[in-house]
Specification:
It is built from 13 helices and seven strands. By secondary structure, the chain is mainly alpha-helical. The longest helix has about 40 residues.
């Protein structure tokens, strides 16, 4: 009788998150519709991206709900929301293609537009084909961050320069997008493997804390200005592009005292790692308890830091930086924003692991299956990376008269290729399986992310148009 009562209650509870997410999606779509009515342009690229973001966010919430509760209905509705997001994403890609007169492959914004579409599609494939239903808890937040980043990047359409008027552009970038999306999927599968392979939770704590510490270290040292200002780009309010003195010189404005908050956040995100080190050194379990508790303070301060950055950049005006330039609102550097949001997501995923690890393990395929799927995914990604480099070299020779010029983007593409080549070599010849292979998949995607996004903003070179 008690069991029957419990089964009767479960569907009702299982519908709670679905109803809440459905109401939130309907409300956000209604608000977006009201904004469309005011603007008069229904099927604009911006509106389609807003719809994409709403559905991807809804899918992410439902996938997360499935990871926490194991309620199967959450996955079905998450898949439906992902499909709806893909449809809107497809509309945005098509709109951009028609508006520009060429495939959307000529900038980071356009590549992100195609990348998130491919990642969402691969999420559904991994869910249906391989039964990894929890994969959306990692892939969908990545897609959400990608869509949000598009709002911070330059979106105006320019005629193709002669350098880019080549069929090899379409081939080269298409292969790159396919390869990067496959690498993102292998990264998510590798994390799932580590969870299923009984890696110690405190080891996850050390890895996530080290990752967030690395992110904040890069932000502080790369963007710290003067006596605590944080450098951000000044954007023109009408063009939605950065103010420039010359084509390669955007106006950078320091936000006073904000970098001190970043430095404080850096110290706090390091605290869990320090406590973990003390626990290993002294073999004191209380230090691990303190490490887990400090994660909550870390997430809170990270959220405050992110809100402060967005608020300051929205409120300030660049009125006195240069008399030749008009006053304009400031926009967050996309590289900083991606890092801070990524750090929050990493910390939240660790909390999910701490709270619901036994449930997650029950929802995942076996570790052997996950290891095999990760290998198969990288076996697809590696040839695509190889063809990406080969087509790029051939195109470079046609354009610049040289197959290879050691441009930063080329160099890091080669580093990415070497990481995955080493993964396949060690697996085939030495028989590497399990955690060592998973580590390679995770490191490989970190290199991919830097190659795709970081190089563009930190290491300018011949690929400055991307």
């Amino acid at each position: 009788m008690a069991r029957a009562t419990e089964e009767q209650r479960k569907p009702a509870g299982g519908m709670t998150l679905i109803v809440l997410v459905g109401i939130a999606i309907a409300f956000l779509l209604y608000m977006a519709f009201l904004n469309v009515i005011r603007s008069g342009n229904i099927l604009s690229e911006t509106n389609l991206l807003v719809v994409t973001l709403i559905f991807y966010a809804g899918a992410g919430a439902l996938y997360l709900g499935f990871g926490v509760t194991g309620t199967q209905s959450y996955v079905r509705f998450a898949s439906l929301a992902t499909w709806m997001g893909i449809i809107a994403n497809t509309g945005a890609v098509a709109h951009r293609w028609v508006d520009a007169g060429h495939p959307p492959f000529t900038s980071v914004y356009e590549m992100l537009l195609s990348f998130v579409w491919m990642l969402a599609a691969l999420t559904l494939i991994a869910e249906k084909r391989f039964g990894v239903k929890v994969i959306g808890t990692i892939t969908m937040p990545v897609a959400i961050v990608g869509v949000v980043l598009m709002e911070l990047l330059r979106t105006e359409v320019h005629p193709l320069v002669p350098l880019l008027q080549s069929t090899w552009l379409d081939v080269h970038v298409t292969l790159a997008i396919l390869a990067y999306a496959a690498c993102a999927l292998s990264f998510s599968l590798a994390i799932m493997f580590l969870i299923q392979d009984n890696m110690k939770t405190e080891t996850f704590l050390a890895l996530t804390s080290a990752s967030t510490l690395a992110i904040y270290t890069c932000v502080v040292f790369a963007c710290f200005h003067g006596w605590g200002g944080l450098s951000v780009l000044a954007y023109h309010p009408d063009r939605q592009g950065e103010l420039v003195v010359s084509p390669a010189s955007p106006v950078v404005v320091p936000l006073a005292a904000l970098a001190w908050l970043m430095a404080l956040a850096l110290l706090v995100v390091a605290l869990p790692l320090v406590c973990y080190g003390l626990a290993r050194w002294t073999r004191n379990g209380r230090c691990l308890v303190l490490a887990n508790r400090s994660v909550f303070f870390s997430i809170l301060l990270q959220a405050v830091t992110l809100v402060a950055l967005l608020g300051r950049a929205r409120d300030l005006r660049n009125a006195s930086h240069s008399a030749a330039l008009p006053a304009a609102p400031l926009a967050v550097n996309p590289f900083i924003f991606a890092g801070l949001v990524g750090a929050v997501l990493i910390s939240l995923l660790y909390l999910l692991l701490v709270w619901r690890r036994p449930d997650l393990e029950c929802l995942l395929p076996t570790s052997d299956v996950l290891d095999r799927i990760t290998y198969r995914t990288i076996s697809v990604a590696f040839p695509l990376l190889t063809l990406t480099i080969a087509t790029g070299a051939y195109w470079a020779n046609q354009t610049w008269g040289s197959y290879w010029s050691w441009d930063p983007k080329e160099t890091w593409a080669a580093i990415t290729w070497l990481v995955y080549a080493l993964y396949l070599h060690m697996r085939i010849t030495v028989g590497w399986r399990g955690r060592r292979a998973a580590y390679f998949a995770i490191v490989g995607f970190a290199v991919v992310a830097f190659t795709f996004f970081g190089v563009t903003y930190l290491l300018r070179g011949l690929h400055r148009f991307s």
